[in-house]
């Protein structure tokens, strides 16, 4: 029956189908859950009963007034700081491996491999690395003569446990950022560098006047990924420390999971999720404004 329709009608039906089906899936699995999450944030609900009690903005007031909930955001700063270092290291290796370095493809592969590993497997791997008594890191430090550092409990000291966890993310995601930077560098015409060399520009001048302006949008993209990852980190502290010691490595996402599935307070957990979404939007908007202003 479809084949009997005029060709223009068949074309319109196909185009509408290709648009309607993805939109239907998007609304079903993205927009509807988001709207339901927003609705539940005004409710008091244990996740089981059919009754949901309307509490208005009480859940949001609880989020902002309870330091045990909102205060854990300060733990995410370590992931943001290490994420900035991660981008700098990734850009360094991208520039280095974009040259005619011998064996550069092998180095690219080695640096990218950690990214394809499972996050839980990486967490367990570094659990052995950071072990206080039998860990390879403390053994290496002891072999080098740093006996005091060799006794450090990297995952048990609340002052730098978050930086320890964030360093695992640096090892895992640096190669991914490097590949993104590398793709951007390879899109820059080599004629620009040749002309700059003829004019007597140094390597640093070529980097600041040619490389950085041409990959500015890619830097913005990687910073976007860094900020969102720092605010939404969950797997590493959950597997390695369970939020310890004494809650020093708990993240906001861990608090959301705990509130929903341990304390059965799905209304408060929904409000926390909405707050996290708003914070991500605000932070990224500020980042976008700063970077766009600098670009102008």
General description of the model:
This protein is mostly helical. 71% of the residues lie in helices and 1% in strands. The protein contains 14 helices and two strands. It has helices at residues 7-40, 58-65, 67-70, 77-97, 104-116, 119-129, 136-143, 161-186, 190-198, 203-214, 216-231, 235-240, 252-262, 266-295; strands spanning 43-44, 53-54. It has a two-stranded antiparallel sheet with strand order 1-2. It is globular. The termini are far apart. It holds the Pfam family BPD_transp_1. The chain crosses the membrane at residues 12-34, 77-97, 109-130, 163-184, 266-290. One of its GO terms (cellular component) is plasma membrane. It comes from Paenibacillus montaniterrae.
Provide a concise account of the structure shown:
With 296 residues, this protein is mostly helical.
Topology:
Blueprint: H1 7-40, E1 43-44, E2 53-54, H2 58-65, H3 67-70, H4 77-97, H5 104-116, H6 119-129, H7 136-143, H8 161-186, H9 190-198, H10 203-214, H11 216-231, H12 235-240, H13 252-262, H14 266-295
Helix pairs in contact: 1-14, 2-14, 4-8, 4-11, 5-8, 11-14, 13-14
Family: Belongs to the binding-protein-dependent transport system permease family.
Keywords: Cell membrane, Membrane, Transmembrane, Transmembrane helix, Transport
Subcellular location: Cell membrane
